[in-house]
Amino acid sequence: AQSVAQPEDQVNVAEGNPLTVKCTYSVSGNPYLFWYVQYPNRGLQFLLKYITGDNLVKGSYGFEAEFNKSQTSFHLKKPSALVSDSALYFCAVRASSGGYQKVTFGTGTKLQVIP
Amino acid sequence: DAGVIQSPRHEVTEMGQEVTLRCKPISGHNSLFWYRQTMMRGLELLIYFNNNVPIDDSGMPEDRFSAKMPNASFSTLKIQPSEPRDSAVYFCASSSQAGPTGELFFGEGSRLTVL
To answer: Which DSSP symbol is given to A94?
Structure first.
């Protein structure tokens, strides 16, 4: 069975500092990995995804993520945090093999950017 | 593009009443998902449709829950009878027919409160 772990319930970072939101996964075969962001009282919004190729993926709002196969990780990063980045972030994985590919979400990490 | 449209945005009802949540996916998307989000359980997949056919309903809590997708542009999630523990935010999401590589597009959610 596939799974996603987001080990931190909350991450606090000062505005202007780099941020990292951690994600590790377990899946049979090659993974397809996604990051989503959820602002209060809103639906999830897609940020970026890793399918194949370059391990560093760039997405919306200046976010990027690095796929590390040996560590089975897909950490979300941003060089300089903004107060407006404060939100709930979800990592998700989908297996590349099999007829039906279920999407599994992590439990979410609340990012708080402090002015 | 109007995005995924859900209605109602908020619903307050009394225990035992029937609740119907509605979803209009993005035009051209072939996959539709219903999720439930609570503080305690996070984001749970309830049911997944592909080309209007239910593929995975293993997440549907019990017989009180039912979902239909009569055509490519409309889906409903019905709870009958409703119970206080059904209180949650229900999200509908759609995805294009891109296999497991396609990201999900979420609606704004329907917040259900059962008294």
So the answer is: E
